[in-house]
Amino acid sequence: FGMSSDLIKEIRELKKERNAIILGHNYMDYGVQLVSDFTGDSYDLAVKAMKTDADVIVFAGVYFMAEQAAALNQNKTVLSPDPNAGCTLSDSLDVDTLSEFKKMYPDAPVVLYINTSIYTKALADYIVTSSTAVKVVSSLDSDVVLFGPDANLANFVEKKTGKKIIKVPPNGRCMVHASYTKQLMEVARRKYKGAVLMAHPESPLEILEASDFVGSTNQMIEFARKSESRDFIVATEIGMINALKLQVPEKTFYPLVTTEACGCARCPYMAMVTLKKIRDSLVENKHVVKVDLETAERAKRAFENTMKILG
Ligand code: 13P
Ligand code: SF4
Predict the structure, then answer these.
(1) Hey, what CATH class is 2-85+270-291 in?
(2) Dist CA 99 CA 96 (whole Å)
């Protein structure tokens, strides 16, 4: 940990020098979570980005998160430690596909998951996250809703709200959560007898129906903290174990799949954000994320529509 502790010290000093904060997603490496001023899920971090007085925000997460923060904060410098940190979900929906669906269903409100590019967000009426999707969709007047790009989350929302959800595109998937099967779940249940199983709603419906709790990464932390149980199986990206260990140290967490068992356990994009890249981003002021004003304003309106519903 020697090399990491030097980097951690250096990053903490750089943050002071530049009046910067680091927002770290719950899936980040342990060291990255240690240098983060706030860790959280995608909704929480987007809101934190809007509330900070810092001049610089380093977004330790994948690119769409930094892009969202830049759109919401035109007057601040938002840095992405690695702008190549993509996401299979955001890659699965482009502006043309969304525009075609909008033409086919002109009266349906467009609800987009935050895991999308800012240009598709600019065409949305609401931007939701895993913690807010069900609440937002159920509050809409329309019984038909255009929703994308995660087909698993769409199935979950459809089941919870009883509305007709048109998936755009029809089969968007997160490469991590879409690989979970009932068989993997049964193996884990046998191995960790009595442990409570928490699942992320990007997982297939058969996983969600057979789990004990479904929620966003922050909701998992809350649930584990309040639960009377001591042991938990965690059906989401394996970096989440870092967040749970840091936030709920008195309990024990087992990943549904380990990195040894499956290359799918760790999101390769989340893994691209390292302490070294965070240090370099602060030293060299890179990579500055810029969103043109019109796109940013439209995406911001869609995010604020969601915030109004949530109150
Ligand atoms: P939340 O942290 O909002 O639950 O979402 C996780 C995610 O999909 C990031 O890839
Ligand atoms: Fe995208 Fe899935 Fe990786 Fe999250 S875990 S960034 S949804 S590919």
Answers:
(1) alpha beta
(2) 5
